[in-house]
Amino acid sequence: MHHVEVEGWSRGSSPLHGRDARCKLAALTAFLVAVSTTPVYGPVMRTGLIYLAYAALLIAAAAASRVPVAGLARRAALVLPFSATFALITWWSGDPRRALAIAEKSFLSGFAALLLIATTPLAQLLAALEWLRVPRLLILVTQFVYRYLFVISEQAQHMRLAAQSRLGSGGQRGRRFNAATGAVSVLFIRSWERAGGIYRAMLARGFTGSFRAAVRPHLHIADFGFLAGAIAACVAIRLSA
Asked: Alpha-carbon distance 102 to 80, whole Å?
């Protein structure tokens, strides 16, 4: 499962991992604003160089974080099927440059967001959102959804192993777990039961509706330096458009 590998990346150790989550959120916001406001029309060569500069900035950040650039790119490409619909409509309407810009901006934005998740443990990211006064209900829902992805993943792996044990590796290879018509419904029911058990266990341990941060984050000079450098780079690329 992709989210399991990304979770492992977020536990790494690098200069980018060590930066405060609030500064990384601010840097991501600056990057997204710069990318989204980059003009679509202009000299073709200059526009291409601007997008290459954005990509080079992301690649440099990924290299500093020691996260596989190819792995990030593959996962960021998952946003392209969604943006491709609007890009194709725009292309057919006679505006190919805007269509390409939609795909490029979507990919760069997805890569940047994924890089933040891959270098920031979820607990730190949610603590930063809470510090920024994001509604607590939204933070709580995000926490539960993310954590229950692991419950569903574990349950799916158990079901897959059980199906392989019953079918073996003989002539029924084509009728394995992936082709089982009822697998999704069974997975949902079992995951629902597991989720209910986990929630009751949380209540028994004193859960009151919010997660408490184990460590209070503190800003350091390096964090301010990182944020200033990220904003300066984004502004410089954007103003060159």
From this structure: 9
Q: Residue ranges of the domains in the chain? A: 2-130+217-239, 135-204
**Exposed, middle or buried: residue 112 (CB in 10 Å: 0-12, 13-18, 19+)?**
buried
pLDDT, one tens digit per residue, over 128-177 is 888 888 887 777 777 777 776 666 666 667 666 766 676 655 445 445 54
Q: Beta-carbon neighbour count of residue 24 at 10 Å?
A: 24
pLDDT in tens, 58-76: 999 999 999 989 888 988 8
First to last CA, the chain: 39
What's the per-residue H, E or C state across the chain?
CHHHHHHHHHCCCCCCCCCCHHHHHHHHHHHHHHHHCCCCCCCHHHHHHHHHHHHHHHHHHHHHHCCCHHHHHHHHHHHHHHHHHHHHHHHHCCCHHHHHHHHHHHHHHHHHHHHHHHCCCHHHHHHHHHHCCCCHHHHHHHHHHHHHHHHHHHHHHHHHHHHHHHHCCCCCHHHCHHHCCCHHHHHHHHHHHHHHHHHHHHHHCCCCCCCCCCCCCCCCHHHHHHHHHHHHHHHHHHHCC
pTM across the whole model: 0.75
Higher-confidence position of 27 and 126: 27
